[in-house]
Design brief:
binds biotin; globular; five-stranded antiparallel β-sheet
Length: about 250
C-alpha cells in the first residue's frame, strides 16, 4: 500500500491532525508524523507523554471496506504490525497485550489509539490509527515509570526513530493488505503467537466491574476470554488488563 507522509515538528496530537485531514477528504494511506506532541492522547482519556525526538508519534488514515461493527479489527491488525516492526528493529521478542498494546520484557513500549469518524455521503468511514512508540525515552513520568519501557532501555543502545518508522509502515502495509484480502483469521492467528496474556492470571477492569481469572486468549470477535475460578467463561469486549505474568504487574 502507498503511504503519503506529512511531517511536523510539533502538533497537539497527530491523531487530531489526521482526523482533520480525513474529514477534509484525505485518502487512505495519509500519514501524519510529528517530532513532538504537546497534547498526545492515549486510550481512556489518558495522556501520552510525547517529548521531542524521543519517540515515534504517527497516525495513519485508513478507509477500510468494513462494516462499522468490524472496524475494531483495525486496532488488532495495527498491534500485530507494531509488534513485528519493534521485534525487527530491536532483535527482541515484542508481544501484544489485549486490546492494542505492545510489550517488551513485560513493559509497554508502544500504544495504539484507534478512532473512527462518520463517512462523507456515500464514502467509507475513515479509521485513524495513532501509534506511539517509546524509542529513546530514558525517563518516564512517575505514574507510568513502573510499567513503561523504550527500545533504547531494552536494547541498551540508541535507535534511530526513522528506522522504527520505516519498519512500522512496512509491517502496517503488509498486515493491512492481508486483513483486506483474507479477513481477520490470519491476523488472529498472528495475534495468538504474540499474545502475552493467554494462560496467565489477569484482572480486567471493565465498565461493568472487575473480571478475574485465567486469560484464554482473544476470540474471533476481538473479545478477551477469561475463565473464572468457578469454571465459567466470560468474554470481555472492552477494558484494561492487569496481567500477573510474574511478580511485576503490567497495565
Ligand atoms: C494508549 O496506549 O493509551 C494509546 C497511545 C497512543 C499514542 C499515539 S502517539 C500518536 C497518536 N497521537 C496521539 O495523540 N495518540 C496516538
Amino acid at each position: 500500500m502507498e503511504f503519503t507522509i506529512h511531517r511536523y515538528e510539533s502538533v497537539t496530537s497527530t491523531n487530531d491532525v489526521a482526523i482533520r485531514m480525513a474529514e477534509e477528504g484525505a485518502p487512505e494511506g495519509t500519514v501524519v508524523i510529528a517530532s513532538e506532541q504537546t497534547a498526545g492522547r492515549g486510550r481512556h482519556g489518558r495522556r501520552w507523554s510525547s517529548p521531542a525526538g524521543s519517540g515515534l508519534y504517527l497516525s495513519v488514515v485508513f478507509r477500510p471496506p468494513l462494516a462499522l461493527d468490524h472496524l475494531w479489527q483495525i486496532g488488532f491488525m495495527a498491534a500485530v504490525a507494531s509488534a513485528e516492526a519493534i521485534s525487527r528493529v530491536s532483535q527482541l521478542s515484542a508481544l501484544v497485550k489485549w486490546p492494542n498494546d505492545v510489550l517488551l520484557n513485560e513493559r509497554k513500549v508502544c500504544g495504539i489509539l484507534t478512532e473512527a469518524r462518520s463517512p462523507a455521503a456515500g464514502g467509507r468511514s475513515p479509521v485513524i490509527v495513532g501509534i506511539g512508540v517509546n524509542v529513546n525515552t530514558l525517563d518516564f513520568p512517575p505514574e507510568i515509570a513502573r510499567m513503561a519501557t523504550s527500545l533504547a532501555l531494552e536494547t541498551g543502545v540508541p535507535i534511530a526513530v526513522e528506522h522504527v518508522e520505516h519498519a512500522l509502515l512496512e509491517c502496517l502495509g503488509t498486515r493491512y493488505e492481508q486483513l483486506m484480502a483474507g479477513g481477520f483469521g490470519p491476523i488472529l492467528g498472528a495475534w495468538k503467537t504474540l499474545d502475552c496474556t493467554a494462560g496467565h492470571e489477569v484482572t480486567v477492569h471493565t465498565p461493568e466491574g472487575e473480571v478475574c481469572g485465567t486469560a484464554q486468549g482473544v476470540d474471533c470477535h476481538g473479545n478477551l476470554v477469561v475463565r473464572q475460578s468457578d469454571g465459567s467463561q466470560v468474554s470481555v469486549a472492552s477494558g484494561e488488563v492487569v496481567c500477573h505474568i510474574s511478580d511485576r504487574q503490567t497495565k
